[in-house]
Amino acid sequence: MSGAHRFGYRRKVGEFIVDADVMARARFGTSQLTETLAGLRLLLSAQVPPWHRPWHDAHAAALRHRLDDDPVGAALLRAAFGRTWTADFLTVPPTAPDLSLDEELTFLESLDDDAVRADLEVATGPVPPELSGTGLARTAAALLRWTWESTIRDEWPRRRRVLRADVVARTARLSSEGWSGAIDGIAPGVRWLANGRLQVNAHPHPPRDIRGRNLLFIAAHSRGSWVSWRLPDTYAVVYPVTGALASGPAPLPEPLVRLLGRARARVLAALDAPRSTSALVAGTGLPLGSVGGHLRVLLDAGLLERRRSGREVLYWRSDAGQALVEASA
């Protein structure tokens, strides 16, 4: 959870009080800095969801070596990540979705050392002596840039497709089911309440009135959710992209591959739950035109059903399609 120290606000929040104007302006989107921070937290964690484990195992050792050569950076991270609170200067949300990492890091790099140390004290307590020097904001930004460049940048196009698929699906649900449907299952403890109240976690923290402000919902490959703000007018809820999208494609039954072909089998296997074309592109890695063609063939064969949800069309296996996948497995 986060705040923005420059406006002197550090209070844990359990609910946002909103009005119709806030929710009319609210947007789903992505953030390279949020994705990088989520990745850094995963690399430092001993408890990693199974769909993130291959990525974690591929890069965790490199981060350890990087921190062995940077004792100030290592101390900074230990002090920044508390059990229930992350230092505010790391989590300030973007002013708009889909900015570049360098654009988002401008705020962090503008902070002075006393401001960084004040945030660290809130997160984990007294600041260790290794952090008594200067250049703490530059050290933090360098660690985030290293994480981006060494572990995320090369696969950002795939990650962005996954995140955008989740954003598109939730936006479609918003048009058909309202905000209660759009954020249903978004993260543990996050849910729409009555009378203009948005619960943002399961902790009994006081509410924060954000009427007249801007609200973002940011999808990320994260282990959990958190709340952040850039006072006076921008608030954000970061939520984890679903495991079904975050994980790589599961192995396919070979009989199904021989019957349908590998790409078409991949599409049918991915439709264990209703998904949009965008979600299928992200989950399978197939081109949009290829996915559309396979969907038409599978529909004509009676293996799929579909319905419109807002601006999206959702597809899922019919009884015949389900029986075929189960028999092949």
From TrEMBL:
Protein source organism: Geodermatophilus amargosae
Residue intervals of the HTH arsR-type domain: 258-329
CDD domains attached to this UniProt entry: HTH_ARSR
Domain of life the protein comes from: Bacteria
Protein's name in the database: Transcriptional regulator, ArsR family
A family per Pfam: HTH_20
Keyword Transcription: yes
Entry-linked SUPFAM superfamilies: Winged helix' DNA-binding domain
GO MF annotations in UniProt: DNA binding; DNA-binding transcription factor activity
Alphabetically ordered keywords of this record: DNA-binding, Transcription, Transcription regulation
Record-linked PANTHER family: ARSENICAL RESISTANCE OPERON REPRESSOR ARSR-RELATED (PTHR43132), HTH-TYPE TRANSCRIPTIONAL REPRESSOR CZRA (PTHR43132:SF6)
